[in-house]
């Protein structure tokens, strides 16, 4: 399975990177089609989709550094902090949830509500465990997770899962009420209404998603309004800085050195204040929309990685993975795929059958990965090197061991 997963992930990454390069062939820029026509009213990206790129710096298959600013400018991500939970507090008017959102450690505050007796008696190690469980409860139930799925995810009994969900409803009674009302409205009328008055369609037989749609849609409205207001503010000042991209709860701005400080202050201030103040006062403590630029080191690893840090690290991780591929591998695959082969060549054949990819050994003209990495050292600062790395790595997985 490890070989198959590596092959399939590599092939997907290679295809995505190649498509981005081909798309940008004319002017070096990505021109994605942006649309608000989503279930929740959030903006979607297509042709190509650049909202779902893997931007986790610690994942060797990340796309950090692929999207870059114009020469001389810089991309900076400004992200809402805990936006969907603040939205849930605002919509429901639940003071307990607002207090948890305002606490220094949100997930610990939530876990203390879900497991009050255990939390009171727990030592630091046990509290870390409860915090991890609480995080699963918070995010899972936001997306409609029921007791059976919760039990499977946490490896607990159905009774324990039911007790946790009941404790959650007791801890946040206004949220529980708001979720029921949203589901009832969706089942009866086929839609819910966001804080802006925008109606979002919900299939009556899928009313369980209405709470998730309400909160995703609420944050989506914040992002869309912020994009308009920030763009207007930059134009009024004659800035070259601009909105370059948005991903979920974040806006990525392209800023120039002489405008950077002011441009980021403007964007953060608009994002933090775009919600009408009277709505923020529905809870005690009041709802706080916090939108701040990412810390420089974190931001540069994701959006300005042409210094080679991420590329070099990625290649080192892939070298380690390649070393691990030497030796026998048992292959698990769907029906119809030969699982008797235990060598790498057999795993490759199974991977081909599984994914439907067909290639010939003589199509590969590259060398060993270690030799390629040595020759690619001078290319760390070249974004096209990432394409070549993926290309060669994919081909090596397919054919380096096939005679």
Topology:
Blueprint (H helix, E strand, L loop, with lengths): L1 H22 L9 E3 L8 E3 L27 E7 L2 H10 L2 H8 L3 H9 L1 H6 L2 H19 L4 H8 L3 H14 L1 H17 L1 E3 L5 E3 L8 H27 L5 E6 L2 E6 L4 H14 L3 H4 L10 E3 L2 H8 L5 H16 L19 H12 L13 H7 L8 H16 L4
Antiparallel strand pairs: 1-2, 3-7, 3-8, 4-5, 6-7
Q: Can you tell me about this structure?
A:
It is globular and about 60 Å long. It has helices spanning 2-23, 83-92, 95-102, 106-114, 116-121, 124-142, 147-154, 158-171, 173-189, 210-236, 260-273, 277-280, 296-303, 309-324, 344-355, 369-375, 384-399, and strands at 33-35, 44-46, 74-80, 191-193, 199-201, 242-247, 250-255, 291-293. It has 17 helices and 8 strands. The strands form 3 sheets. Strands 6-7-3-8 form a 4-stranded antiparallel β-sheet, with helices on both faces. It has 2 domains: 1-65 and 306-403, no CATH class; 85-216, 5' to 3' exonuclease, C-terminal subdomain (DNA polymerase, domain 1). The model is unreliable at 306-403 (pLDDT under 50).
